[in-house]
Design brief:
By secondary structure, the chain is mainly alpha-helical. Helix content is 47%, strand content 12%. It contains eleven helices and four strands. The protein has a two-stranded parallel sheet. The chain is globular.
């Protein structure tokens, strides 16, 4: 895949269709400014600040924009909290609607037909595919992202993190935990 991408990039540059500096800027934007680390900061703040958490759950778009994360694909954000009683899972059954400002580019599996259909038909099976086993009495709610509304899961805060800084908390948040196909990492568990 790398060879194909580099060959295509070389051809597009040679033909004058793209400027290397512009391409570098786009790559830098998605590596450093847009991505799951943004969502992790939102989650960490919600875990640390009850007033922000309340605002985030009431008006996700405004609360997320307050942290500087807004724009295309993030205009209408709804944040759904995991609880001991309910786990949330996000899918886009029609295509790949995804909150880019807080999660970056969607993973390939998110756009795949098998994920999109199985998430609705067998959400526990999807979670098992990702190595997640929930208690049998914990409900799973599936949220269908659309062009009008994008969802972000607020994972449960791991036990043993009282007194942690937001930076430390953000390290526990994964992209998958904000989609619902994963859980936040427990303290001491490496990525």
């Amino acid at each position: 895949m790398d060879v194909r991408v580099r060959a295509l990039q070389t051809l597009l540059v040679q033909k004058g269709y793209i400027e290397p500096a512009a391409l570098d800027r786009i790559i830098e934007l998605y590596e450093k400014e847009v991505g799951p680390h943004n969502g992790a900061r939102v989650v960490a703040r919600a875990w640390d600040d009850p007033a922000y958490r309340d605002w985030l759950l009431k008006d996700g778009t405004a609360a997320i924009a307050d942290m500087g994360y807004s724009g295309r694909q993030g205009e209408h954000m709804v944040v759904v909290p995991n609880t001991p009683e309910q786990h949330n899972l996000v899918v886009c059954t029609l295509c790949s609607c995804y909150p880019w400002p807080v999660l970056g580019l969607p993973p390939v599996w998110y756009k795949s037909a098998p994920y999109r259909s199985k998430a609705v038909i067998d959400p526990r099976g999807v979670l098992a595919d990702f190595g997640v086993t929930l208690p049998p009495d914990q409900r799973i709610r599936v949220w269908d992202s659309t062009a009008e509304v994008r969802y972000l899961v607020l994972p449960l805060r791991p036990a043993g993190t009282d007194g942690w800084s937001r930076e430390q908390l953000a390290e526990l948040v994964t992209r998958d935990s904000m989609i619902g196909t994963g859980l936040a990492r427990a303290p001491g568990v490496q990525a």
